[in-house]
Design brief:
single chain; mainly alpha; 0% strand; elongated
């Protein structure tokens, strides 16, 4: 067996095992339950992100008191003449500085 064949079989196992497991789980507990659980998880993730976005907007509004500026920062924009603090609020802290 060649290296490419071995890698192909390994990739097939990595892809096929979760699908097989999901099918067996669906057969044992029912697909409606699985869909409901997945939908609930997605709903919670969307809700948490919306709350985080709202908190960030409120924090920036309290800090800058300028709707246009906050909108630009929320959109992760940057521009010439922007302060270092605004840049960090817009793009986040850099990984490193040279």
């Amino acid at each position: 067996m060649t290296k490419a064949e071995t890698q192909g079989i390994a990739a097939l196992i990595v892809i096929a095992l979760p699908i097989y497991g999901a099918m067996k789980l669906g057969e044992s507990v029912g697909w409606v339950s699985i869909v409901a659980i997945v939908a609930s998880v997605v709903g919670v993730i969307i809700f948490v992100r919306a709350v985080q976005k709202k908190q960030r907007r409120e924090s920036l509004m309290a800090k800058y008191k300028d709707e246009d500026l906050v909108l630009a920062l929320m959109n992760r924009s940057f521009w010439q003449g922007q302060t270092a603090e605004q840049l960090v609020d817009s793009l986040g802290r850099p990984h490193s500085v040279d």
